[in-house]
Amino acid sequence: MHKLDLSFLSAFARKVRFSFLPDALEPDGYAAVPPKRGVYIFVSQDQKFVYPKGNSRVFYIGKSDNLRRRIREHSNKYLTVCEETQSDFFSRWEYGRYYYAKAFGCDAYYLPVSGVEESKDLESKIMECFYNRYKALPVGNGAFSYR
Questions:
Q1: What are the b/e assignments for 105-134, b being 16+ CB within 10 Å?
Q2: Which member of 32, 33, 63, 113 lies 3.0 to 4.6 Å from 68 by CB, making a disulfide possible if both were Cys?
Q3: In the β-sheet with 38-43, what is the strand arrangement from edge to edge?
Q4: How far is CA 29 from the centre of its chain?
Q5: Contact status, residue 40 vs residue 32, Cβ threshold 8 Å
Q6: How many whole angstroms separate alpha carbon 38 and alpha carbon 51?
Q7: 115-145 pLDDT, tens per residue?
Q8: Which H, E and C letters describe the chain, residue by residue?
Q9: Band of residue 14 on the pLDDT scale cut at 50, 70, 90
């Protein structure tokens, strides 16, 4: 487990209990994920990414109203990228997060929301913690879409 990869959450207001999910993007690697609202974090198995204020294996932070379904969707897109040919690469557009996962492996952490909290609100708090620590968004995320 990559315990240090979540050190950016040390300033997080509540006690954080993320569950670790190895090989999240492999077929059925997401089966243990509950079908609840929450946030997930993809981390590289092999690579630390360089950010302005340090290095981290985190390359994507996302949210969903159904964690299992959303991680399964990521898994399907990841598998598509893994099977693509060079002509597919030039004719089809996919998010960079899938290429990071293909190149460096992917594990995940996930955290269901508690109570009536919205997954978007939890994602915003976690993204803000990441940004405050590294002064950048994870390489697989877009511009400030979390605000």
A1: bbbbbbbbbeeeeebbebbbbbbebbbebb
A2: 33
A3: 19-21, 107-112, 38-43, 58-64
A4: 14
A5: no
A6: 25
A7: 898 999 999 999 999 999 999 999 999 765 5
A8: CCHHHHHHHHHCCCCCCCEEECCCCCCCCCCCCCCCCEEEEEECCCCCEEECCEEECEEEEEEECCHHHHHHHHHHHHHHHHHCCHHHHHHCCCCHHHHHHHHHCCEEEEEECCCCCCHHHHHHHHHHHHHHHHCCCCCCCCCCCCC
A9: low
pTM of the shown model = 0.89
Higher pLDDT, residue 65 or 12:
65
Separation of alpha carbons 73 and 54, rounded Å:
30
Chain CA centroid to CA 67, Å: 11
What tokens does 54 get? 């340090």
